[in-house]
Structure formats: C-alpha cells, structure tokens
C-alpha cells in the first residue's frame, strides 16, 4: 500500500505502517552511521546529552558523497543497517521513531522496534543519485570532524522507502523472499 | 622497449575513477534493462526501473551512482617491455586516485588504520594488483569497490573430497547469507583453486569480466550457468525485497591447486559493479 508520512513520526503513525508498504517521507530526518553511533554511545556512557532529541526522529543510515556547488548534497543512498544493530536498541528505547537503511536487522533490534512502536524502513541500496533528488537541504549539526559520517539534518520531500520491519515485528525480508523462492532445498 | 612516464598513469587513473563512479559499462546497463523485463515481482520490477533511472540521473547530473564510491581497486597489467620513468609507480597511482576523488566529488571512504580508523580524507591508498605480462602496453582497470557487498564476501577452504558440489554449496551459502545486505541484483565473482590469497584475488578479478561472457572451460561455463539459475531461485530479488532477479552473472576463474586443497572465494558485488578499463 502507498502511504505518505511526515517526519518526525508519532508512535500512532508508526503503528499504521505495515511491512511491505511503500512510503513517501516528507519532513526532517537525521543521518548517522558507524562513527556517529559510536560517538553517541560514548556520549550516553558519560551521562551527557546527545546532540539531538531522538523523540520521534528518524535516523537515516547514510554518508553522502560531497555536494557539487549549488546542490544540497551529493549521492545519498542507504548503507547497511546491521552495522548499527549494536547501538539501535538503546536509541529506540530513548525514543527514536524510525530507522532508514538497507539489509537485515538483529533480533534485539526487531524486539526494540516492537517494544517502542517504531519502524525500520529500507531505501533502495545503490540508488544514491535518484534519492539525492528528494533531499532539499542538508546541514551538519554534530560531529563535523567525522566528514561524511557527521550527523546531518536533512529536509526531505517524498523520500521513497519500503517498510521492512513494522511495529508488530513483521519482517518483509523474510516473507517476500519466501514468495519467490523456488530453489531445490535438497542441495544445501 | 617503450618508455612511459608515470604521470600519464596518474592522469588516466584520475579520469577513470570519475568515469567508473558515474557511468556503468554497457554490459551492466543491458543486464539491468533485460532483468526488468524478466522480473516477476512487481516491487522488484519497480526497483529495477528505479536503478535505471538512477543511472540516468548519475550520468546526466554528474552525481555518483552510489554514495559509496568505494575503495579504489586497481589492476595494472604491465608489459615486460615497458620502462616506467618519472617516479615511483605506486605514488603515481595513488596520486591519480587522490585527484580523481577530489575533482570528481567522490566520497572519501578510506581509513588509515583498520583499528584506529582515522579517515585519510583523499581515499588513498588504493589497493593495487600488479601483473607483469608480455608486450609493451599497460592495461589499467579501475574497479572502485563498495563495502556493502564486500562485507558479505567469503573464502572457504574446502577439502578435495567436497568437489564441485561443495563449491556450489559454498557459493549459494555466501549469496544466501548476503541477502539484502549486498544490494542485489549482484554480480558474483568466484575463484576456485590456487592458494588462500590466489583464490580471493581471482574472485575479485572475475568481477571485472563482462556480464554475459563465460569461462572458456566448458565445465566452468556450465557451472556459471547452473549457479546463476540456482541463485535466482533463492527468491532474494532486487533490493532483497523478493523476486527472481538476485544476480546478473556468476563469473568463475580457476587455477591449479595443491593435492590437499580446494580453496573457493566468493566476492560479491552489488548492481553498481564498476570498472573502467584503458590501455596505454
């Protein structure tokens, strides 16, 4: 089903999203990947405040290529989400509303999604040029020294994603693959 | 004996880094458009269509196809009758990468030390593979490699008794485990034989072979075709969201090996299988 949502996202909205839905996001989202997550974790361990209030926010696992003059951003597709699995449950428990990436998530992350009425969305991996067209502005808000891995605030319009893990724990990667699987399982 | 100044190699590599990250080779583009016609999943079809649109935007607006513009893997086949002058070749290659990634607005994704992880900020050093061949030409292949798929690659040290069935199982295991993480549809490079490092290198080089071109060895060609069919029956599909297009090609290279071993390497590349080739 096609849906339009705005970000940040409420728990009520997150609950309406179902695995397999094709969703267009408009609003504000934040980027963070490996190094920024590591730093956020260290910040929390020191008992300090994160550079953004996570409540209802969506984190896009993405490190862009440099922007050419006059453009908000360079190529901007998703990176593999599982590398952030170690950090995601804690951020979800702190109010993170959703994550955008690509690839499988751990059981601990899926449990935290269900526990917090959140959502995991996939953008099409390797479509960074196309996805960049939906990003209207980009501003580094923290960890500038990390370069492409800094935390950026993005304003997006009709940013296309697919719901992979919904707030009930349904996982599209598992169900969709079964639907097209015709392999002879006796081989392996 | 032919003399080549290494500055010429710098210039070529600079251009090739930019070219490879904005334009896919014709064989990859054809593979995408053909697979869109064959794909049975409506969502899979839509993704294949978006990937073609992405290529169009990348080339027209000069935005890298993927934000992961890779670690620069460079194969240099140097004719033994070439004399290089003008400084160390390795420096010339890295200078080409440095200039290409800067001028091409490509992402700098290389860290100086695997544990300390400080970005080198110019995407150097490259990973360079040298080969001395007959003749007086230099063949340069620039293959920027993204790590979404690199992380899902594997080496299996099989036993001779595992045989061809063991090889098939290894390749299918690697692809099945990679699933959506490797940005399918993928190209699967396989090295069979040699030693631990030789089979890994063969699998990397296999990714630079044109999609649709098979091994000259009859049984290897059959194996490539059989594995492609089996991979596409896994159901992983475009983006890992289900479908009948999981890989465009399985390219296998082989080499003699030891009486006690059967090394198999599986190097997976996403649909942005980049390689630019030039000869000077």
From TrEMBL, chain A:
TM segment ranges: none
This protein's record includes keyword Translocase: no
Alphabetically ordered keywords of this record: Lyase
InterPro entries per record: Fe-S_hydro-lyase_TtdB-typ_cat, Fe-S_hydroAse_TtdB_cat_sf
Fe-S hydro-lyase tartrate dehydratase beta-type catalytic domain location: 6-175
Keyword Ligase: no
UniProt similarity note: Belongs to the class-I fumarase family.
Protein name listed in UniProt: Fe-S-containing hydro-lyase
UniProtKB/TrEMBL annotation, chain B:
Database matches in InterPro entries: Class-I_Fumarase/Tartrate_DH, Fe-S_hydro-lyase_TtdA-typ_cat
MF GO annotations: fumarate hydratase activity
Entry keyword annotation includes Transcription regulation: no
Domain Fe-S hydro-lyase tartrate dehydratase alpha-type catalytic: 11-277
Entry superkingdom: Bacteria
EC number(s) reported in the record: 4.2.1.2
Keywords: 4Fe-4S, Iron, Iron-sulfur, Lyase, Metal-binding
Keyword check for Iron-sulfur: yes
UniProt similarity note: Belongs to the class-I fumarase family.
Protein name per Swiss-Prot or TrEMBL: Fumarate hydratase
Lineage of origin: Bacteria, Bacillati, Bacillota, Clostridia, Lachnospirales
